Amino acid sequence: MNALATETSLPMMLNLAPAKRVMVFAPHPDDECIGCGGALALLAQNPEVQISVVLVTNGDGGEHSPDVNMGPRRLLEMQAALKVLGVSELKTMGRLDGRFELDDQFETDAQQLIQSFQPNWVFLPGPMDYHKDHLLVSKGVESACKEVDSVEQLVYFETWTPLPATHVLDITSVMDLKCRALQAHHSALKYGDYERGVKGLNAYRGLYLGFDRFAEAFVVQTRAEFENPSSWLTQLKGLGLSLKSRLGART
Ligand SMILES: [Zn+2]
Known about the structure:
Elements: H1 3-7, E1 12-13, E2 21-26, H2 31-44, E3 50-57, H3 70-85, E4 89-95, H4 104-117, E5 121-125, H5 132-145, E6 153-157, E7 167-170, H6 175-183, H7 186-189, H8 194-206, E8 215-222, H9 223-226, H10 232-238, H11 243-250
Parallel strand pairs: 1-7, 2-3, 2-5, 3-4, 5-6
Antiparallel strand pairs: 6-8, 7-8
Helix pairs in contact: 2-3, 2-6, 3-6, 4-5, 6-8
The chain binds zinc ion (ZN).
């Protein structure tokens, strides 16, 4: 820990040692790389850690995409990206991209997946993400996790919206791997220079660690915290930082 971190309330270092069975919910192909690709690469280096990634939507680009092959192609790209990170298990939920609806069926399906894998850590999108699919997936997965006792902590990752991070993870040693994995998402990269954006975000988060570091930042909530209706995160969500209220405030 450097001087800057000890003198202020900067995020703590994320200790990966307690992670034994790790489940990741990615709303779309590429979120797993952008949000926690470094963490996955580091976790995959430990053969005792089991990792299961769940792709929630079909990634077909939604109603804006005329390309009917987009979904299957993006699934192959995601498999290739995960292979680079050292992860082989990928499950799909087949929900609609860009039109994700949070219903009872989603929570039941998510709960079944969590129940059968028995993760002790679950990675999920940030609870105040700008992207509606991310926001709703976060809410649904959080709710499903409350019903499965094996889940010891939730690890919210940042994609479209930076988080009020509680923890950071030094991913400098696997930053190249993360970038290579991201490059496998050819279809997504046509819509934005995500590699540049991710490097910038991870370099910024690396400032907490000293010079020349890359880091991923997370909000970590223990079971006691995510079950607590008056936790600071629940209160923050209640302040109206949701996509809906932000958009409503503009009109
Ligand atoms: Zn996404």
